[in-house]
Amino acid sequence: MGVKKHLFWKRYKKNCRYCNKIIRVVPSYVKRAKFCSYSCRSQYLVKQKWFIKKLSISHLGQVPWYKNKHIQTNTGRTHFKKGMKPWSKGLTIVQMMGNKKNKERIIKLSKTLKLQYNNGRIGYWKGKKFSDKTKLKMSKSQKGKKLGKNNPAWNGGKGCLYGWFFNY
Description:
With 168 residues, the chain is an alpha+beta fold. Helix content is 33%, strand content 10%. The strands form 2 sheets. The chain has a two-stranded antiparallel sheet. A hairpin with a 2-residue loop joins strand 3 and strand 4 (164-167). The longest helix is centred in the middle third of the chain and has 20 residues, at 100-119. The chain is flat, with a radius of gyration of 34 Å. The two termini are 42 Å apart. The mean pLDDT is 76.
C-alpha cells in the first residue's frame, strides 16, 4: 500500500509572465502566482502602460503633506536653536552632576575602580590597544597551545551534534 502524500507536496506548473520560466506552485497559491521573482514582477509592471499611467495620474499635481511645514515638537525655552551652546560643554562629570551627593558618589566609584585595577580584578589593558608588533608576538606565543586535550573545552573526544553523541 502506497504512502499518501499531503496536498502540500502536490505542485502545479505555471509560467512566469515576464521571463516564461516554469514555476512550481502549491495548490493554494495557483490563482495568485504569476511571477518567479520580485525582480520579474517589477520589470513586468514597469513595461505596462496602465501601471505607469496609474502612478503618474494618481499623484499628479499633489503636494506632499509635509511640504513647507516645520513640525516643532519641542517648544518653549528648552528648544535648542542654531548657534546656542550646550550648557555642559567643557565640564567634567563631577561638575555636571551638580549636587553634593552625586559628587560624593562619583568620587567613591572612581576610588573603588582604582582599587579594583590595583587588586587585579579589572585588567590593566582593558580598553587599551596593542600595537601590531605586540599582537603578532602574542599570537605566535599561543599557536598550538590550546589544541586537542590542552583546550579547556575538551570533552574527552566526545561530541554532541543535534542530540546525537559521537566520538572523534
